[in-house]
# Entry
Amino acid sequence: MLPTPLALIAEITHRCPLHCVYCSNPLEMQKAAVELPTEDWLRVFREAGKLGVLHLHLTGGEPLARTDLTELIVGARAAGLYVNLITSGIGLTEPRLAALVEAGLEHIQLSFQDSREAEANEFAGTRTHAYKLQLSRIIRQFKIAFTVNVVVHRQNLDHLVDIIAMAEELGPDRLEIANVQYYGWALRNRDLLLPTRLQVEESQRTVAEAEERLRGRMRIDFTAPDYYARYPKACMGGWGRRLLLLDPAGQVLPCHAAGVIPGMQFDNIREHPLDWIWRESAAFQRFRGKDWMPEPCRSCDRRTEDFGGCRCQAFLLTGDAAATDPVCTLAPTHIVVEQALKQIGSDGVLSSIPTLPANWIYRPNPGTAPE
Amino acid sequence: MPGPNKNSKPHLAAGCRWAEANGPERMLMFPEGALRLQGTGREILERCDGQRSIREIIDELQAQYKTGDSGRIEQEVSKFLESLQQKRIVDF
# Structure
């Protein structure tokens, strides 16, 4: 039976005042001129509600760069969707937040890059850390769910105790500590971002201790780096199984990175209803279910749990999107992951971490060349 | 944060709400997730209105399920609410 999508990730713009070195946007971003107009987004939200989607994640780029954000939230709530805003906070003021909450915003997820200002600004390629701290205090005055999100990697994992302490002071309901995933911009900066084994083990202990201490007060969700995992992540909960992603121009993708897979054609909401794209479009059917799976996935007991891992990672690391995710220790190509870890001296001691400043490749704004 | 006691008045945490649609089961929406609820789970959460205390919720459910084991109902309510507090769905 065809699954019902649970969430719609709406990249409403690729414009962003930040230039994070691990941005999840594709290397080829959509320019402002091709962004969907308000009425198209509102139609998509209505179609999503009818399709059974529960959650809408408004993201970007920086979603606050859209001047019609309030209207989009009103429309999404009218369509029955639960509305989450994933933001850097840049462009948000107290009056604007009041308007978004009034419009029906229910959850705000604010990103931080580190607990230390100089480093945070370096990873973001802009001076935004101090403003985020100020903004958190404003957010806390509103009756909405508040998540602090911190992306972690080799250059900031050693600050994890301080990062958790910073979050405790800001007082969100939830702290999301997400290890960088290596696609697009992050893959380009992988040698600077990939943590060591010791860092990963230490961070797991730190998180476990904090979870115990903060139980009932602040929930912590931690995503470990899959390069160190035994088995792959169930990427997006399985291809075309749980999630839909719309890019700013109206293309519908099964995940953030699917555009890297050669030969994929993504249908556009300007030409097809969302329901048809979900059920019948070639892109959503390409890796849905089990028929595409190679061995060892096809006969593996875990195939209904991890769905063979991530198709984009398989392509990026092995050149074959239909291969077993190479982070899996059972994958015939697992050696490529071991080599990447070896290259950064992953088994070395903490003091071998290179010191900043590093030669980052920053994510530019759409339509401009990288710096 | 003090743990809940029988006089605590549970209510849905900020950013948590019931979905519009109604039926034999009801859906509770919260950040990054949703719970399908029916039976006692639904009965308990629908009483988390910030007005009733945990004691009152237990009393109401014991009265409603007269045939049930009252000790078990008390335990079930406390355990359920505690787990929802940890998920940041219920506050006291």
About this structure: Chain B is about 40% helix and 15% strand. The mean pLDDT of chain B is 88. The first helix of chain B runs from residue 39 to 46.
